Amino acid sequence: MRFHTRKWVKPEDLNPNSTLFGGRLLAWIDEELALYSIIQLQNPKIVTKHMSEINFRSSARQGDIVEIGIDVVKFGNSSITLTCQVRNMMTREIIISIETITMVSLGEDGKPKAHGKTQIEYVKDRLTD
């Protein structure tokens, strides 16, 4: 699992129980998955099609730092299937794991568009001297 992003839990991220609001965490996850997919598929038109079961295993409090990790499960014709895990860097506990998330590449018409990708590409490999 590659951990790409860290978020600092601030007062505006809390629920009435003074723990991280689940909706805020899911928004962070969805944004991170979209950014990752945009870069991998080289298309700014990406949508979330599916997320498997979401099970909150622990939480975070104000001042904690959470880290979002993503791995590619597979490449489809117009999609990329990912897995995600979020962990609390202060307690070392897993907050949430999502086994599969499907992101879809869209064309200008808003319909699924083949992306032609079959493996992870790293930005450093795309750069030329």
UniProtKB/TrEMBL annotation:
What does the record list as coiled-coil region(s)? none
Superkingdom field? Bacteria
Which keywords does this Swiss-Prot/TrEMBL entry list?
A: Hydrolase
Concerning InterPro entries, the annotation shows: Cytosol_ACT, HOTDOG_ACOT, HotDog_dom_sf, Thioestr_dom
What Pfam families would the database entry show? 4HBT
- Name under which the protein is recorded: Acyl-CoA thioesterase
Record field: transmembrane:
none
Family designation: Belongs to the acyl coenzyme A hydrolase family.
For this protein, the record's PANTHER family field holds: ACYL COENZYME A THIOESTER HYDROLASE, HOTDOG ACOT-TYPE DOMAIN-CONTAINING PROTEIN
Q: Which CDD domains match?
A: BFIT_BACH
What range(s) does the HotDog ACOT-type domain occupy? 1-109
